[in-house]
Amino acid sequence: MTRHFLRPLSVFVAACCVLSPAHAQATGDVVELPLVSGWYDGKVVRYVTTDVSDKKAAAEMGANYVPRLANAINQQRQPGQPSAVERIYSFVNFRQGGVLPSLPSPIGAANANLNYSPLWQVHKVTWLAGKQPHVLKSEEQVLAAEEAGQVSIEKTNLVVNCPVVFSEADGPLPHVKIHLANQDPEP
User: Fold this and answer.
1) b/e per residue, 154-184, with b = 16+ CB within 10 A?
2) Which strands sit side by side in the sheet containing 164-167, from one edge to the other?
3) pTM: predicted TM-score of the whole model, two decimal places
4) Burial class (CB in 10 A: 0-12, 13-18, 19+), 59
5) pLDDT digit string, tens, across residues 88-105
6) N or C: which end of the chain has fewer CB within 10 A?
């Protein structure tokens, strides 16, 4: 009886594997997701937020609440062992796009950046009292501002799934159409 059950299952799995992305796009189905703007190495990037590990933050971001995402940072790793989670610097008391330390390069299936991950652990950046806030456009600028005593950085337990779909350097992810409500290139 088990063999009879496995045969249809294996046919179903094989059929799913042969469906190409081109076939999936032939349906004409479209989804619209709000873009979030940020910075990587001085250049504008845009990403979508689909999943968040905290219920309140998920509601604020209009994303899926996925508590299991927090498991990505709860795993004990050995020194030098890569993580599935990257950082994102999110500004608390100054309006600007988040700062990413990596992105796919190039965007799409040819990505060669092994450090990129769409899973980000949020690091809250706060401008300190008496310091003049200004836009920081790279991880290096964020860390230099911290070293200079201009900002504080707090690592949180919040994990978000935010795939990058556009970079100023590479353009959009293949087969993605972007319609900007505000044509201002800076977030």
Assistant:
1) eeeebbbbbbbbbbeebeebeeeeeeeeeee
2) 64-65, 51-52, 151-161, 119-127, 86-91, 98-99, 36-40, 43-47, 164-167, 171-172
3) 0.80
4) exposed
5) 999 999 999 999 999 999
6) N
